[in-house]
Write a structure and sequence with these properties.
Strand content: 5-15%
Number of strands: 6
Shape: rod-shaped
Order of helices and strands: HHEHHHHEEHHHHHEHHEE
Helix content: 55-70%
Number of domains: 3
Mean pLDDT: 77
Length: about 475
């Protein structure tokens, strides 16, 4: 079992090995540090507004989840699209000094590929914790070139962000233009169909003939009911006049001539009855009175026949009027139904026109807003600080490399020392003998030390028997 004291004795005994290895590693670190080319890092700071305002509608936009949003924006900055914009913006493919410094090929396509690889290696994008600040850094041998590339990446990213916002709006605007053309054609067709229907059926937009025709239908229905009642009354009177052979009907007694003849007939019949009792049937006065009664009966019969004919004519006239009113009522019903169908069809046509107009207006308003959005060159990204030209190299870090060399050399030396000790185990303390042999140490040879007088002094160490 190795104790701390044993470990320290081993390290002390192997100090030459540890020191040589440590010095070799430190020397190697120094050589690597001086051989590593100096790189300068320039950083541009961007700030992203997490909660903005729609420039078209003026409404506040919902706040974004900044953690995921900034990560997405960092990936956009690292994209090949932004890198190509940087190349085009700085015209890196045409600059011979850049090509010579970076060792780019002569072919433009191969040169662009090499530039994309170079930009991808030198670009560093990070975010501030719990902040809306985005840092774009670039490492290069030339400090001025590093600052130019950092600023170019920032500007290319802003342009790309604008394109990503505007391009969908442009596509939507083009789609709305296509839809508006077809919707406009459909709306014109429906308006023309409505106008043609109104002209065909003589329907004015300011009049409602259906109400007039309905009123006329109600009036004809009332007239038909009155004609039917009149026909029933005349039929009843005719039946009464035709059926009462012995007695005068009440309708006939209303006639003045019938009333006069009835009165004279009653008087003549009374005289005839009186003469029958006084003089008999063969008396000239009786026969004269009988002739007067017959004459009055004949006149009364003619008057009744005239009245009956008049009543029959009234019945026929009432029937004819009733049939005429029925025909007019049926025709008016058909006219009202036709107007009702026309109005329903007109209502449907108007609804189609109104719906098409509303849809067209809504699409036109949305298309106008989308066109405005596609022309708004605004973004929620602003440059907080442009990249200053760095004056001190970022890499190599001499102090850190030396510190790492010292630590690495010491650890490697200790590891080698322990490995050699494990392969070549030596007895260094009485405890090693006791642990190795399992026997107690009775005594040990004292170490000799040389004093100032030059004579060796002896130090004795005794140990009791166990």
């Amino acid at each position: 079992m190795m104790t701390l004291n044993s470990l320290l004795r081993i390290l002390y005994a192997r100090r030459a090995t540890i020191g040589s290895i440590a010095l070799a590693v430190i020397a190697l670190a120094i050589v690597i540090t001086f051989l590593t080319p100096k790189l300068y890092m320039a950083t541009t700071n961007l700030i992203i507004d997490g909660k903005g305002q729609d420039p078209v509608s003026g409404q506040s936009m919902p706040a974004r989840m900044m953690t995921g949003y900034l990560t997405t924006q960092a990936e956009i900055i690292r994209s090949r699209n932004v890198a190509n914009k940087v190349i085009d913006q700085l015209k890196l493919t045409t600059k011979e000094d850049v090509a010579n410094e970076l060792g780019l090929p002569d072919n433009e396509t191969e040169r662009r590929k090499a530039l994309l690889t170079y930009l991808d290696k030198g670009l560093v994008v990070d975010t501030e914790r719990e902040s809306n600040v985005l840092n774009i850094s670039f490492k290069a041998k030339n400090p001025l070139f590093a600052a130019q590339l950092a600023d170019a990446f920032a500007q290319a990213y802003i342009n790309t962000n604008l394109e990503l916002r505007i391009e969908p709006a442009k596509q939507t605007a083009r789609w709305y233009d296509q839809q508006l053309a077809s919707m406009r054609t459909s709306l014109v067709e429906k308006q023309n169909a409505l106008s043609s229907y109104q002209e065909k059926h003589d329907i004015l937009a300011t009049s409602d003939r259906l109400d007039l025709e309905s009123a006329k239908l109600a009036e004809l229905s009332s007239m038909l009911i009155a004609a039917q009642n009149e026909r029933l009354n005349n039929t009843t009177r005719n039946n009464q006049i035709s059926g009462n052979r012995g007695a005068l009907p009440a309708q006939a007694l209303d006639n003045p001539q019938v009333q006069r003849l009835s009165g004279e007939l009653a008087q003549a019949q009374a005289r005839l009855a009186d003469l029958l009792t006084r003089v008999g049937e063969n008396h000239p006065q009786y026969r004269q009175a009988q002739g007067e009664v017959d004459s009055l009966n004949q006149q009364l019969g003619q008057a009744l026949r005239f009245i009956n004919g008049s009543v029959r004519s009234s019945v026929e006239l009432s029937q004819s009027r009733e049939e005429q009113l029925k025909a007019e009522l049926a025709a008016q019903k058909e006219r009202v139904l036709q107007f009702s169908r026309n109005r329903n069809e007109l209502t449907l046509l108007k609804q189609e026109v109104d719906n098409s107009q509303a849809a067209y207006d809504a699409a036109l308003a949305r298309a106008t807003q989308t066109k405005l959005e596609s022309q708004v060159a605004l973004t929620d990204i602003s440059i907080l600080n442009i990249a200053p030209v760095p004056t001190r190299a970022t890499t190599p870090r001499t102090a850190m490399n030396l510190m790492l060399g010292v630590l690495t050399g010491l650890l490697l030396g200790v590891a080698v020392a322990l490995a050699r000790e494990w392969m070549d185990r030596r007895v260094r303390t009485p405890l090693d003998i006791e642990q190795g042999l399992g026997l107690p140490v009775l005594a040990r040879i004292p170490a000799l030390t040389v004093g100032r007088s030059g004579f060796a002094n002896k130090r004795f160490l005794t140990r009791n028997f166990s």
